[in-house]
Amino acid sequence: MYAEILKIGIPSAFSNIAMTICFVFRNRIAASYGDFVIAGSSINQGIGSISFMLITALAMGYQPFAGFNYGAKNFERLKAGFRVTILYSTVLSVFFVVVFALGGRSIFTLFIRDETTVDAGVKMLYATLWALPFVGIQMTMMVTFQALGKSVLATIVTLGRDFLFYLPLLFLFNSLWHFNGFMYSQPVADGLTTCVALVLSARLFKTLKAANNGK
Question: Residue 214: pLDDT band by 50, 70, 90 thresholds?
């Protein structure tokens, strides 16, 4: 029982640790461009967390559903729930892309009025919009791996996003393209992580299909 609990909890713990480490390095690089970039980045993180929390809540609501159906070996219902969650989380992601694209500057001015900070922050917000559509897909896949007890797959997605892709790209892109590279390292990392998650999910559901046909 303890092993099963840890299999679900460890990827979540790694995710929080990895995000904290990435946040530290991101702030150190942001500091090299000035205090206004740090301020803009912090506000951008806060605005982005609104969409992230809602998308995560949708995925977490699907998680027990996935676990129940996996335990009952009702793989078709599990796949149906997976597709519905992917669909609605993506729709929610696109909704926030539209809101932030149209009202990004107005939202930023609710937090700060300094034009230099607003300009930098809005540029970062627009850059993160390229990554936002991938969030729902990533979260749905990660909680599916956790619900099915596939801790290795969940950990690959979690650590892959932050340590395999984001941190190396953050330093590489920053050195090559400076502030633009600093901004766009995150969406590129999210796109690559989504590709990895899609491959792992396809293999997982292929295995489930084979098991279902073998009943």
Answer: low
- Does the pLDDT of residue 161 top 90, yes or no? no
Residue 203 CB burial class (10 angstroms; 0-12, 13-18, ≥19): exposed
CA distances from 19 to 45, 144, 187 (A): 12, 20, 15
Token pair for residue 35?
A: 């205090």
Chain-centroid distance, C-alpha 19: 10
What is the per-residue pLDDT for 68?
93
Q: What is the pLDDT of residue 215?
A: 55
Range of weakest confidence among 6-20, 44-58, 186-200: 6-20
Number of structural domains found in the chain: 1
- Least Cα distance to 41 among 159, 173, 49, 98 occurs for 49
What is the Cα–Cα distance from 215 to 210, expressed in whole angstroms?
9
Q: Is 100 exposed, middle or buried (0-12, 13-18, 19+ CB in 10 A)?
A: buried
Q: What is each CA distance from 200 to 83, 126, 178, 191, in whole angstroms?
A: 15, 29, 33, 15
What is the domain range of residue 153?
A: 2-213
Structure tokens at 107: 């939202």
pTM: 0.88
User: CB within 8 A of 1, min separation 6: which ones?
Assistant: none
H-run or E-run covering 189: helix 167-213
Share of residues in the chain with pLDDT > 90 (%):
53
